[in-house]
Amino acid sequence: MKLREQVAISELTTMRLGGAARYVAEVCVPADVVEAYRFAREQDLPVYIIGGGSNVVGRDEGFGGVVLLNRLSGLRSVDETEGTIVVEAAAGELLDDLAAFTAQRGYTGLEATSAIPGAIGGAVMQNAGAYGQELSDVLVAVKAYDTQSGEFVTFERDQLELSYRHSIFNSSAQGRYFITAAVVQLHRGEIEGELYGSLQAYLDEQGIADRQPMTIRDAVSAIRAEKLPDPAEFASSGSFFKNITVREDEIENLRMRFDGIPIFLIGACWEIASGWLVEQAGLKGKLLHGMRVSDKAALILINESARSYADLAAARSEITQAVQEKFGFALCQEPEEI
Q: How many CB atoms are closer than 10 A to CB 93?
């Protein structure tokens, strides 16, 4: 286990904000997980886990504990038949690499999550998804280290309380487990049902009719490359606000009240695209306290010149207030905070 002291959280997260972490431990093998938690207990310090750092925003005061960088690696097929594949992905692997691994082999289920920044561990915790697919659609089991019992455990899917951007790991069991791997099962074939609006529009514009996994992966990657800033070049946490979930019996009234409001069925949830709400509130392209509302996708905030978490908080407040006043919806931030 590699241990460093006084490391800027801004260096570990793609929004590039945040004070110093007292310690940062790089976890590369399961034994490192045990050692890292033992160190934290001996020092009586709290622990926070970071994977790719794309879904975490650092506060100005920093973190007076131990940040664990999840660098567990490994991506392998553990079972494959004519029609299905089961893959175990270590939690430090990128979700995009898992999407590529399965799509290249002709299996559907994760191709629409292509090019999402971030690691498997965070994707499991947040039940990451995009363009109509979520990790919960294919998740079979999750392996983790139980910090209370000191044992490595396995959760079956039905134990995880999965829903939109939700699992036990960011709710009832938050902080107790260190996710080490995810096991997914995908089926050979094509994505089914009505496609997410912008994805279907792209396919239509390009004259693409087939829905093979690699076709969808390439399309989603192209859309994201056009609309979403590369965190390596622009300081951003990707999608900053969660979509608004609504009941099915509310949809007709909402469509009558707000012309053109985009409402989609994602898994079992009806969702309103929050980026559309921000855009309709007149904020697309605006620079607020050093944070730019992207002129390509209003769901994205880009840190152009913000110097502190306080700048981000001020920009967030203006955006949420504008949407609340125009539509009556309360936007919720997607990235966690440390």
A: 25
